[in-house]
Design goal:
The protein has eleven helices and twelve strands. It is α+β, with helices and mostly antiparallel strands. InterPro entries: Ntn_hydrolases_N (IPR029055), Peptidase_T2 (IPR000246).
Length: about 375
């Protein structure tokens, strides 16, 4: 057998010797300083070290987008947003306090947000490009990874009820369009005509988006109307989705998400909200997560499933995993947003790369916290 000469070893040894000689030539104090700096770099966390709160049993969000401005938000409007988030939390709390399931709790919380025209879901849904409404929702149970979702529904009063019906009463995960509407109606869900979803502020937001397409004021595409007009407050400040996450007394997790989509979106467009692993995910032992923001980016990044996988396979805590996905990974794909993420032990985090994210949480002892202004919930936090 022919033995190859180890010619590659000579320069490698020479390089190593030179590095060692250079290091040893440093004064002892400088070598120690370099060693400390290297150790600190190795120990430096890649994400946020601590969660936003502990002992949380339920959390909700009302969308990520342009943050509410303290200087332009009237006391009445501030109260309306805080009351809306609080009402959703209290609805879920009633379920949990009676020993109910986390699935029932997140559904109850999301239904309250769907009934509130301030939020882009249900009654407050934005308009599509053809002046219609197409709504999406999903719900997932962490104990067995069972899920249900609807996309592009046009007549269900509460799309999250449709998603729950798919979970409980079908062998499928996702139903879309007319089939989803018909399925809900056959199972006794409340139906409405399209005018139920209509609000003046959402209509004004659509008109502003149409003007933008023609080169008028208000930005580009579906960015929404400018300034502090009612349309801007209704659209830009609460765009995205609504969602809820919960853990019940059995330590079972659940998550739910619902949305009216994007102002001036193409008919038939489906975002991340009804897609399991993108906008919604729940798995006992890791996390319950509901996302909000640039839907296409959350789909491409498999946002909520990735968050769970980082916790399961890399041993990250909920805060570090959520920060990694929302603040570090998704913006590199070209979009921003946020997530509410709840671990089975009650650790909760709500990072976002968008200017703001409306959200709130309920602790085990009944304390309610709502956050709607940038100084309460700064971006990249």
């Amino acid at each position: 057998m022919r033995i190859r000469p180890l010619t590659w070893l000579i320069p490698a040894l020479a390089t190593a010797a030179a590095v060692t000689a250079t290091t040893l030539a440093l004064p002892r104090g400088e070598r120690a300083a370099e060693d400390r700096a290297a150790a600190a770099a190795d120990a430096r966390p890649t994400g946020k070290a601590r969660p936003d709160a502990r002992n949380v049993v339920l959390a909700v969000h009302g969308g990520a987008g342009t943050a509410l401005d303290r200087d332009k938000t009237t006391p009445e409007r501030e109260k309306a947003y805080r009351d809306g988030l609080t009402e959703a939390l209290r609805a879920g709390q009633k379920v949990l306090d009676k020993g109910g399931s986390s699935v029932d709790a997140v559904q109850g919380a999301v239904m309250k947000l769907e009934d509130n025209p301030l939020f882009n879901a249900g009654k407050g849904a934005v308009f599509t490009a053809d002046a219609g409404h197409e709504l999406d929702a999903s719900i997932m149970r962490g104990s067995d990874l069972k899920a249900g979702a609807v996309a592009g529904v046009k007549s269900l009063r509460n799309p999250i009820e449709g998603a729950r019906a798919v979970l409980d009463k079908s062998k499928h995960v996702l139903l879309a369009g007319e089939g989803a509407d018909d399925f809900g109606a056959r199972h006794g869900l409340r139906t409405v005509t399209q005018d139920y979803y209509w609000t003046q502020a959402r209509w004004d937001a659509l008109m502003a988006a149409k003007e933008a397409e023609k080169g008028g004021k208000g930005g580009t595409g579906a960015a929404g109307p400018p300034g502090d007009s009612p349309a801007a407050l209704a659209d830009a400040q609460s765009k995205g989705t609504v969602g809820a996450v919960a853990v019940d007394k059995r330590r079972d997790l659940a998550a739910a998400t619902s949305t009216g989509g994007l102002t001036n979106k193409l008919p038939g467009r489906v975002g991340d909200s009804p897609l399991i692993g993108a906008g919604t995910y729940a798995k006992n032992g890791t996390v319950a997560a509901s996302a909000t923001g640039a839907g296409e980016v959350f789909i491409r990044g498999a946002a909520t499933a990735t968050l769970s996988n980082l916790m399961e396979f890399k041993g990250m805590g909920v805060a570090k995993a959520a920060y990694e996905v929302i603040v570090k990974r998704l913006p590199a794909l070209g979009g921003d947003g946020g997530v509410i993420a709840l671990a089975p032990d009650g650790e909760f985090d709500a990072p976002h790369s968008s200017p703001g994210m409306l959200h709130g949480y309920l602790t085990e002892d009944g304390k309610v916290v709502t956050k709607i202004f940038p100084d309460e919930t700064p971006p990249n936090s």
